[in-house]
Every structure is written in C-alpha cells, then in structure tokens.
Structures
1.
Amino acid sequence: MSTLRLEVVTPERKVYEEDVSMVVVKGVAGELGILPHHIPLVTPLKIAPIKAKKGNSEEFIAVHGGFMEVRKDKVVILAEAAELGSDIDVSRAQQAKERAEQRLAAKADEVDHKRAELALQRAVTRIQTSGQQ
Amino acid sequence: MAKGMREIKRRIKSTQNTKQITKAMEMVAASKLRRAQNAALASRPYSDKLKEVVASIATGGGSVKHPMLQSREIKRSAYLVISSDRGQAGGLNSNLLKKLVETIKSKHKSNDEFTLFVIGRKGYDYLKRRGLPIQQEVIGVPDSPAFADIKSIASAAVKGFENGEYDELFVVYNRFINAISQIPTIKQMLPMDAAEFSKKEGPAADYEYEPSPEEVLNVLLPKYAETLVFSSLLENKASEFGARMTAMGNATKNATKMIEQYTLHYNRARQAAITQEIAEIVGGANALS
C-alpha cells in the first residue's frame, strides 16, 4: 500500500514526521481527505484536530491554525502551534475552555470576544484530540 | 608594612571572587549559546517552507498583488527593536541602540514620523529615557523563546503596516556571525521585496490553491512576516549569549592578570618586611655589643 509522508512543523520544532496512508484535515473551505498522489495543493487550516491514518490505527494531532502544503507523496503542515494527543494536558485545556466560555458569556467588547472565541476553539481542539487518542 | 600586605591580600581575594563569577557566567553563556543556535536551526524548516510557498504563489500566480509586496510612498516608518533583557554582554545593546538612534535622527525630523516596537528591557529603558514614541513593548522574553512570546507584538507590527499606520517596517537586531562578532543590523521587513522571491528559480510545483491564491497569500504573508520577526529574535538571542561569553571571557582574563600583579606586589611587600625585620635585629644586636 502506498503511503505519504506527513510532517507537522512549528516555528520551534518538528512535531511529527511519519509515513501515513491518509490525512484528514479541516481547511478553511471545508474538510479534506488527502490520499497519496493527491495533486499539489495549498490551503489555510482551521483550528481543529487533524487525523492521520496509519494502516488500521489512527493518530490525532491538535493543529492551531496554520496551513497545509500537499505534494505528490508528501504533506507538510505549518502551524504556529501543534501538539500530539499524548502531550496534551486535558485538565488545563478544560480549565481554559471554561474560562473562555465565561468570557464569552460576559459579552465584553469585540476584541475580547474574538480572542475568547479563538481560545475556546483551541481548548475544544485540545480536548477532542486527547479524547480520541 | 604589615598593614599594606593585608590590604593587598584582601584585594587578591576579592579579585579571585570576581574571576570565579565571570568564569561561571562565561560557561553559562556558552551552554546557552549552543542552545540558542540549535533553536535557530530548528526554526529554519518552518520559515524556509513558508518562503517557498509564498514565492511559488508570488511568481507563479502572475497577477497576484498584495499590499505587503508593494512599496508605497513613505510618510511614516516603524522600527521593531530586538534587544536583550540583561546587560553584561559587552557593547551589544548599546551599539545596536546607538545605530538605531543615529538612523532615526538622520531620517526623521520629528517624533511623529516614526514609531517603535521594542522587545527587551535594555532597549525599552534606553529609548524611553530619550522620550521616543514606543507603541508596544515586550519585556522578559525567556532564554529559549517560544513563538507565543512575541506573537502579539509581531502581529501588531504587521497589522499596523496593513492598516496603513506606517509605510515601512524595519527590524533592528544583532546579526549573529560567530561568538566574537555580532553586527547591529537594521533590516527592512515590510513591504517585502518581491524580487527576492522571484530570484530563486527552484522546481516550483504547480499548486492548486484553496479557496484562491489571493486568499492563501492573505493568510500566508502576515504569518511569514511574523516568522521573520521570530527568527530575528532567535538570532539576537544567539548574539546576546555570544557577546556575553566573549565579554566574560575577557573579564576572566583581566582578573587573572590583576591577580598576578597583586601577587607580585604582595611578595615584594613581604620581602621588604622581612628585610626590615632583619635589619632591625642586626641593628639591635650591634647596639648591645
């Protein structure tokens, strides 16, 4: 079975580098499944977990924004922050989620609102990622 | 004479203490320098990749235009100054800040014509004391900085350009050559030089863009600019540790030299004291006989 190489890179380090059989991501224009020999593609990503299929097993990586570059046999995801499911501190993410929800409920000015929304998205992504591990 | 000897001995001791401290600081800086260099290397793939994709859009798209790639008439400038939080690094910060102030003086007539973003306490204190307009500052960036530490100031600087608050953005930092030489540098970051992208003719893959090349570029260019700020920060950190290592190495050498000299003085004083004592004894014995 053919595979493609998945790399997740942040400004600080390479988070992930493995051969996988399929990658599922959430792009700004919708969800995308990438199989080997996909045509070259570039798209920004949403804050969401990505799914890497390796044979029968699946791995999840929390990707906070960034974008994806697809080549024939290689997928590179560049994100400002990314974590493997096993590296995530669930209780901290849970706390962050509650904090963000409180802030959203408080209806502060627009900038705060937007920031809280992003924080909520990140927290939810982290929780989902670690939950599916 | 005995009193002078005690004085010299105390000086030797205190110099030895200083030497111990500078020696330790030199070794700490050396190990941090190695870590900073590794961090700078680890950030390469990210910025290289971003540059590659931006370049392939900028050159392949043909008609793609983006405000960050176009120079406009310059009415106001912004400088993003990267300095260190701590001193004891030779002339690292003062050289950089002097160069910045000179450039500002020669280019601008009044404080309204430019604005400053500052990372690091040394730069902040210096520029604040001179009454220059500081728009935003970050103090206390850790020795191994994370992208999140400077994300807010970097995106504020990029956003100001996008909103037209200023028409060019410079990064001011110490370029790292090696442990003994760092060059204070003022580099133009925005607008980006489109020629720089088209220069490199690589095996440019023909990408499909989703949703559209313009939209992808809109997301990518600010990110790329922020990444440039981050890599400048990493380089400045490496410069800081390199400069500190050299400065502390020199301090250690000087302390060793001083100790040698003091020891010489001490021995001379000791000899003189002994000679005098003998002379006194001989004088006393002669007086008896």
2.
Amino acid sequence: MIGIVIVSHSQKVADGIKEIAEEMNHGKVEIKAAGGVDEDDGRIGTSAFKIKEVIEGIHYIENILLFVDMGSAAMNAEMAVEMLDEEIKQKVWLVDAPLVEGVIAATIQASITDSIEDILATAMESRDFQKFSG
Amino acid sequence: MYEDFLIDKVYFVKVIEDLAQMIEEKRDYLSGLDSDIGDGDHGINLSIGFREVMKNLGDWQQKDLTFLFKKMGMALLGKVGGSAGPLYGSFFMKFAEQAGGKEAVSFVELYQMFKAGIEAIEMRGKAVVGEKTMVDALRPGLDDFTKSIEEGLEPKSAFERFVAAARQGSEATIPLVAKKGRAMRLGERAIGHLDPGAASAVLILEIFYNNL
C-alpha cells in the first residue's frame, strides 16, 4: 500500500486526476486530492496547511508520494513536509514528475509491485512519455 | 548607537496596520502588474492574506514579537494561495524567530530579522538576483543594509539605503527575461514589465521605513 497526494492550484484538477487514477487503482493506493486553497471556495491556489492535513490523514501508510503542478504548489508542498512530525516526514517523497502522467504511472506500478523504488522510478519515467509518434 | 535605538511593539503593530492598508490600496495595481506577466492574482491574494492578519491582530499583539510575526507568517502562508504565500510566509516566520520572544528589539536585531527573513525567501524560492523576482529587490537591499550597519550609519539613514537599493533592484527587473514562475514561459515578452513580487517587496519595506 502506498499513498499518493495530488497537489494542484485547482481543486477540480486534483479531484479529476484522482478520478482518472482510481480507475487503475486496485486497492493498492490511497489517493488523496489536495487542490486549491484552504476555503474550498474554488479560488485558484495552493495551501501548505491543506497539504499537511491531507498527508496527516494517511500518516499510517509507509510511503506517501506527493505530486504537484507548479510554482507555489511545489513551495507549499515543501513547507507542508517541513511542518510534519519527524516520523511522518520520513515517509514522504516529493516526486518531480508531471502531475497527471506521474500519478497514473505510479498508481499502475503500485498495482504490479510493492517496491517503492520501482514505483518512484516509473513515476519519474513518465517525464519522457511520448504521446504522439513521429 | 544601535543598542539605544529600540523598536517596540507599538511600531510593529502600526507597521502591520499600514501594510494591510497599503495592500488594499495597491491591490489592483499589484494584480495589474501580475496580469502583464503572470496569473494576475498577486494583489488580490495578498489582500486576502492581510485581511486575515487584521482579523487577528488584536489578539496576537497581546503577546511578544515572535508570537505576533509567527502568527502573521502562518496566516499569509495559509491564506494567500499564490507563491507570495510561502514566500512572505517564510519571511515573517523567520523574521519572528530572530525577535527572540521580546517585546522590543534594538536596531541591530531588526537588521538580523530582515536578514533572516530575506534569506528564507531566497531559500524557499531558490532564486538569485537577475531572475525577475522579489529577490532582485531584496538581495541588493539587504547587501546595502549590511554595509550601512558595518559603516555605522545612523539607523534611519541605514534603513533608507536599504529601501533605496531595493527600489533600484526592483526597477532593474523591468528589462529582464524571467527565470522563475509562470513569467518564465513568456520569454522575451516579459521584457518591459516590472516584476510584481519585487514591486510588493519594495512597498512593504517603505512602510517599515516610514514608521521608523
């Protein structure tokens, strides 16, 4: 079992990526969305506190992968992790991969293997996914 | 000279009130700068953050400066939403730490607070001078502030030099191509525009100066 936290400026984007990934999830991944600001009012942005809370909500999972879209999402993800208790902090991986592709690649790989190294490597390979040939 | 120049909580509370007022007045100006080369929410985001600060300032000022500015940093971090949240949030949280739980600080301690805060912004944003960010204002500002302290300039002049160098650094972002943030994608289209983060940083420093 791994955890995946999806951080996007848009709550809808985070929820939507979770929705796509859940289709490939065979109970091996706890997928959580942490999109938008604290208020859940649809405003575009990210919140370190919201991300921290979402991670704490799945603190019992051994490996938690964080995927972010850009800019403040990355900074707020870092701050969220810094604010975590030491024992939870050690479980978190900030994954420098594309958000949609990375989350889905990690979810699929988690259905095949329990190796966190494999799952992280697959997520990173999604940087090179080719969508059109030629 | 610097030990005798004490800056008390009355000063800092007034600064925070003035910052909140300034942010309201400059909200559309800052969002406008951001519309030119970013996502257009810098002013509105800061305004949401500072409204949250003002809602709580009455309670927070009952305690010491470390408590006050830590709470302020956390509020900006939580409410701002854009990159200014973690950046100014980190600034005020480090600023707070250096106040050492006191009710008043000396001028050298104030300098140490700014130094720690600005270094936190550089670390958080991983930015250096020349990338068209608030660091373009803050780093040269801090360098001149440091020199002024070393040369023993009297407090108001030292701070004036801090703000002047920051302002000059901010204006120097106009001809730059951006290397950070969404403006980075614009390439040469960012040329000719003042960086909104550098602009807000200078406005903030001016409030600290005007109240000295």
3.
Amino acid sequence: MFDQLSDRLQATLSDVRKRGKLTEDDVDKAMREIRLALLEADVNFKVVKAFTAKVKERCLGADVLGSLNPGQQVVKIVNEELTELMGGSGRDLVFSNKGITVILMAGLQGSGKTTATAKLAKLLTKEGKRVALAACDVYRPAAIKQLETVGKRAGAVVYQQGTDANPVEIAAWALDKAKDENRDVLIIDTAGRLHIDSELMDELAQIRKRVKPHNVLLVVDAMTGQDAVGVAESFSEAAEFDGVIISKLDGDARGGAALSVKAVTGKPIIFASTGEKLEDFERFHPDRMSNRILGMGDVLSLIEKAEEQVTEEEAEELQRKMEEGQFTLEDFLKQMRQVRKMGPIGNLLGMMPGMGAMKKMKDVEVDDSELDRVEAIILSMTPHERAVPQIIKGSRRRRIAEGSGTKIQQVNNLVKQFDQMKKLMKHMANGQMPDQNQMAKMMGQTQRPKMRRR
Amino acid sequence: MSSTWNDILDLGDRVVPDSAPPPAAEEEAPKKMGAFRRLRESLSKSRRALTEEIGSSLFDRIDDETWERLEEALILADAGAMTTAQVVEKLEHEVDSGAVPPDGPAIRERLIDILTEIASTNRAPIDLSQDPAVVLMTGVNGTGKTTSIGKIAWHLKNEFGLSVLLGAADTYRAAAAEQLATWADRAGAELVRSNEGADPGSVAFDAISAAKARGSDVVIIDTAGRLHTQSNLMDELGKVRRVIEKQIPGAPHETLISIDATTGQNGLRQAKAFAEATDVSGVVLTKLDGTAKGGITLAIATELQIPVKLIGVGEALEDLRPFDPEDFSRALLGDE
C-alpha cells in the first residue's frame, strides 16, 4: 500500500510549490507518510524515529524551487539518507594475503545459513577459488546431509564428523584439514541459534576464537520484523560479525531489517540472496535497497538482468526493427522468452518503478500463466501469420484458438494488443516518451501507474 | 499456557486413552542443553525486554505520551501500523468517553481484552475428527514446518495414542525427507517418502493411500518451503491440495501455515498468498522463545480471519503448545 509513497508525498505537498519553501507543518505531514512507509517495510521503530528526525532537519533547510516538485525533493532526500545509512558503497569480503581465508556463518534458525553457505561457495568457486565447507550444525536433523548435497552442487568439498562431535572441535579440525588440502577458502556453517540462547551463543564465540575467521557473516532473513535489531546486537556481541548476508530477498518483503541491522551495528550488508538457485546470490547494492524499501523499484538490477540475456547486437537489431515498425510476433515471442529467463514475471515487475502497485491490482493479470497462454497462441500461428498478424481473421483465428487451447477472444486481444504495442514502440524508439494513457491501454488496464524516471 | 491440547484438538468420536501421562521426553530434542532452564531464562529475558519497552507503569498517568508509548509497544511487537492504530484508537476512545474508568489497571485489563478479542478471531480446534484426518503443512522457507510436524506427531501419538503417518512431500530441499524421517522416528510415526525431485503431489497421493490402507488416524503432509511470491510453486501447492481432495473429499481437513514469530509485516502477505492457494485454516506461530512477539498474527487475524492454533516456544517436544489468546495478549504487553 506504500508503493506510492512518492505519489502520496506529492499529494501531501502539492500546494507547497507555490510557496517554494517547505514549512515545518508540511515537513511534519511528509514525515508521517515516511514513518508509515518505513514501519510497513519493517524498519525498526527506533531507527525510524532517528531517521525521520534527520530527514526533517534536511528538508527544512532544503530549497524546493527548481525542476523537481516538493514531493520528489523530499523523496530524493529520503532516498539519499537511506542509501547513506545503509552503507554508502558496499564493503567486500576480506581475503587473507597468503594461505587460507576463513569465513564463519551465523544466524537464527531458518534464516538460510546453509543455503547461503552453498551460494557463497558457488560464487567463490566461480572466481576460481578452491572452497571447503565445514558442517558444524550438529543439532538440526539432517543438516549435515543438506550441506553435503548443496555443497557438492556448488563444487565445494564438505568436511563433516557426524553429529556426535563438538562443533568447536569440528571447526578446528576442518581448518587443519583445509590447510592440509591447500584450500583457498573455508566456510563454516553453524547451527541456527536464538540470540538469547547463551549456551549456543557462547559456542559460537568459541568457534570464533578457535579458528580466527577473516570474515564473520550474519545471515538475516529479509522478512524479519522489529526484532532484527535485538538479534543483530546479540550476534554482534557474541560473534563480532563483520558483515551481513540478507536472505530471501526474492520475496516481496521490503527488507527494512537490513536497514535496521546496519543502523544499529554499523556493519555493512555484503551479499543478497535472491532466489532458489545457487546462482541467485549477488553483491548488495545499498542504493537499490533503499529504493526497494521506499517502493521505488530497482531499475539497475533489471537492466543488469536484461544484459545477461540479450547481446548488444540483438539489442541493436531489435532497436532497428522497432524504429522501422518491423517488429513481428516472432520477435515478440523471442523477446518474451528472454525476459522470462530473467525470472518470474512478478519479480521483474516489482523492480520497475511504479509497477509494484500495479502488481497488486487484482484485475491486472500479469502472472506467468498469462504469458504461457500468449506463448501458446503465438506458437499456433504460421510464420507468415507471425510476421503479418493483420491477416489473422475468421478461420485462421479459430484454428489458432483451437491449436493453443484458448478462446477466439483471447487470440483477438493478443493481436490487438500487439498492434498497439508496435505503435508505441515506434513512438518510443524515435525518442518520444509514451503517452501514459496509450501505455495503460496497451497493458489492458484502466488505472495508470505513475512512471518515475531516475 | 492455559489452553491444553485437549482444548485445541477436535478428535470427533475417537476414543482417547484417559489422559495418558506423556512419557518423559528425555532424548527428544536434539542435543537440547537443559531445554527447560533455557526456556525459563529466555522467557524471563524477553519479559524483561518487554517491561522495559512498555513498563507496567504505562497507564499510571494518561496523556498523549501514554498512547504514543502504547503505539510504540505494539509496533515493536510487529502488530503493524494498521492494527496498532485500530487498537490504540479504540482504547483511547473508550477511555475518553468514560466507558473505561481512567485508572491504570482497568485500562490495562481492557487493552488485554481488546487484544484477546482480536487473537480469538475464528478460534476453532484442529479438526482431527475424520478418519483419516488429513493435515497439510505449508509455509515459507525456514519457518519451522518440518520441526512443527515432528512435534505435532509426537503429541498425537504419545498423548492421544493416535497412529500418525507423515508424508514427505518436500522433495525440493536437500535432505528434507531425512529430517522428517528423524522426526518420524522420534515420534513413533510412519513415514511415506520418495526421491528428491519427485512430484510432491504423488508423494501426497502415496501417503494418503498408505494411510487408508493401514488405517492411520492422522496423516500430516509436509511441503517444501516456498516464497509466497513464486506463483509456479504456489500453483504446485494448490495441486497437492487437489490431489488430496480427490482421494478424500473434504480433505485436507486442516491446512496450517507456519509463521516465524520474528517475521515482520511480510507475514501478512505470506498468510494471504497461502490462503489464496490452499485455503489455510490455522497458523502455527513458531520461534516465540526469542524476543520476538509474533504480533503479525494480530494483523493476520484482523485482515484474514485466520486464527493461530499452535505456538512453538522452544526446541523440546513439549515446547509446541496450544495457542491461548489471552496468554498471548498478556505476553505481548509483558504481563506474567
């Protein structure tokens, strides 16, 4: 519901522009919206308080004249402060100059340590490092088996001594073994533990003392609520962690916990875990995260994902076709498949500014099944029909509908929408921003989302 | 907790052995280090934390700050801005209008009433009246599904003498079936499993067939943790449900979602998405033994009318307990 924070701020501050300066009352109104948005994103209450106080101060001094409207100006300040608070540019892992680098993983139960361990191993293996994993979770049933399976998939060796050994001893033993075998990196997976469980927290501190890790990483679930602060503080005490991995970011959680942890402990977020696959693990970008918390989308990630799928030549070819209005259903199919390779369509939409709100609108069906249907319809067309969809009439329409298991109406809609899209593309390719109504018509919806440009 | 397992289970016309004394659960929880001591310790710690935040002196003086601090306490419990605003507004209004006398203890009791009322929304026992009764366990990754199933099975088997069969339909996570197998062993339940990567629907099918053939009282189907935003995986869950329904009309008789008490506002979206996919009938609120209070369940009750049925307060078997709305509300405010 706070996807339109920016819109709401603009509405709240709509009459400010005439005066050119924000009054304290305006700013207070804006801060209320921001406070709600941050709380909804699970940013800790106390962090929110301190944060809004700081933003308020900056807003009061800010000159809101100029090209930006006051609402955007406030959003800009909030965004900058959030990014700042979240760590400016990110810190990286520390690697030992010579010999082995040790990484210790810690976190609550179910935060995703074992998965993060394997994903990190995969990332490092890809960089050419020889990675070993130590299985120190002797408590959860089958945890060792899980690590062995995912570790193998990641291309790492897994050292384990079963569930009867002491985790501190296993860690020390694994370190010796890793050194003997000349590994570059040892990642130690530990059992999930409650931060108030003094015995297990003590065990963690002992592992730390014993193996002297170069990096201690805390795994924090992106869905964590207000409690994230207490958790981070306790782990900071016992494990003195150096950085954070934020897990399960592929969901729709705003991940305010990340901000809280950073604000309270000062420790940076280094990695983000963003999907089910071992490859879904990336360096953390504070600026993108602050946009996510504010519901402003993540255009950069989207572009990066797109770049992975489309080569430059392909993109140029596409551009040319668009400009000349030669874009066919065949191209459309190809493009759609590339987009779908980037992940579930819902995730992608969430990254686009303003689309977060649209995604939630019940009457807009932009889920994957819809795309399956579109694909089926196009696949039931002949090459000629794909190139010149105008010829799809009467019996062709019926044949395509039957072939794809859809209704004639749906075939009709697709052809119509494609035609509109083609016009729009030509328009855009020639350097004009689309008329938003036209855009909305294309998406088959009445309410148009506000697009924001960065 | 004042609710008992007897209160929370609807066993239909099954004959249950007269309050069979639960066998001493000694080696149940894996390497639990003095689970009781730790539980006590943790409870008193979280109590202390709560008391610091809200303080029993909250209602000593009634002014703007009182309401602000109450708001703060509820937000910190993850109740969410919406539910918090509703509760505070209601209480403030009642005090202002004189419906509640402006003295500390009375206001506090009324507050607990209001919270209890919310937490009691749609309260109903876990339906085990059918033969076999089918329970489907769902939830996001890492919320404690498998562990909760193990503990439920143990209670049903050891306290109520029911024969329980577990279906390992989490065929995705590495070693998930092994984890469930360990629990089946501990609880004395039977297990139906397949290979990693097998179709979850077929495992559910096999489990129910086996339960029918063997005359099991209860079948509990474990499913893979999935983020509620993955529409393909949510569809798969819907399919598992339909497979079950086809075999036993009306089943699953109970569909539970496990929610981690540390979860924030996203918990509401989780519950909503799972409810849409599988018609969730109750929440298992896990990991309440930390400092998190699980206030998101109030938002779930308000907006989705889905009640909490069980809570997890520790690693030991007896730490899975029936949910008691009043106890929960008091705990939320740091009462005894």
